[in-house]
């Protein structure tokens, strides 16, 4: 239940906030150095970083619950125990992947 | 199936076909389902490429980023990503709207907005990448295109 609600909520969030961020990034790069600098200043600020961390978590949550749906589409994983295990695994994997990504970025920038 | 007369059909709002038209899967359900999953797999592959690329790039360095996105090996997957993502979003938000918006006028309006946003967003993204790619030489050499 929860994993399904999160799939929709994160998908919705990515569809609106995620695409606006992606289009801003691409449009700024196409516009020139000044526009790109403004984007980087916003994305690199506190608010920008919070949004980017949130987007990356939403992305991984949606990715892993999406993979779960692809498995369920094959007709597998409907036994109660297996189903519950995969649901919990989705939440854990999303948090681990988000932490790993930002840990990697943090290590790179030091 | 009831054996109604023509008059009974009119009284209950037209023929059987007329009453169900526009209300549901007009043989589009399977296509929707398959495209949702095809674009999901496309998104998976293309976003893995994007994330691996981005964490290795100097994101704040405009010239380097433009040179990267100007190369065919970055511009083409980026354009494919934009197509796959907006297609996936169009299908996903359609499902969301059809599940939660029950009255006709708001639902149709929401679906129109989603369609317009996805097509316009994809066009803007693809144009941006194309502009970067087609002016890449000028950006590197300093000669205006």
Automatic annotation (TrEMBL), chain B:
<dbReference type="InterPro" id="IPR014312">
    <property type="entry name" value="Succ_DH_anchor"/>
</dbReference>
<keyword id="KW-0812">Transmembrane</keyword>
<dbReference type="GO" id="GO:0020037">
    <property type="term" value="F:heme binding"/>
</dbReference>
<dbReference type="GO" id="GO:0016020">
    <property type="term" value="C:membrane"/>
</dbReference>
<comment type="function">
    <text>Membrane-anchoring subunit of succinate dehydrogenase (SDH).</text>
</comment>
<dbReference type="InterPro" id="IPR034804">
    <property type="entry name" value="SQR/QFR_C/D"/>
</dbReference>
<protein>
    <recommendedName>
        <fullName>Succinate dehydrogenase hydrophobic membrane anchor subunit</fullName>
    </recommendedName>
</protein>
<keyword id="KW-0479">Metal-binding</keyword>
<keyword id="KW-0249">Electron transport</keyword>
<feature type="transmembrane region" description="Helical">
    <location>
        <begin position="69"/>
        <end position="89"/>
    </location>
</feature>
<dbReference type="GO" id="GO:0046872">
    <property type="term" value="F:metal ion binding"/>
</dbReference>
<keyword id="KW-0816">Tricarboxylic acid cycle</keyword>
<keyword id="KW-1133">Transmembrane helix</keyword>
<dbReference type="GO" id="GO:0006099">
    <property type="term" value="P:tricarboxylic acid cycle"/>
</dbReference>
<feature type="transmembrane region" description="Helical">
    <location>
        <begin position="109"/>
        <end position="130"/>
    </location>
</feature>
<comment type="pathway">
    <text>Carbohydrate metabolism; tricarboxylic acid cycle.</text>
</comment>
<feature type="transmembrane region" description="Helical">
    <location>
        <begin position="38"/>
        <end position="57"/>
    </location>
</feature>
<comment type="subunit">
    <text>Part of an enzyme complex containing four subunits: a flavoprotein, an iron-sulfur protein, plus two membrane-anchoring proteins, SdhC and SdhD.</text>
</comment>
<keyword id="KW-0408">Iron</keyword>
<keyword id="KW-0472">Membrane</keyword>
<dbReference type="InterPro" id="IPR000701">
    <property type="entry name" value="SuccDH_FuR_B_TM-su"/>
</dbReference>
<keyword id="KW-0349">Heme</keyword>
<dbReference type="Pfam" id="PF01127">
    <property type="entry name" value="Sdh_cyt"/>
</dbReference>
<keyword id="KW-0813">Transport</keyword>
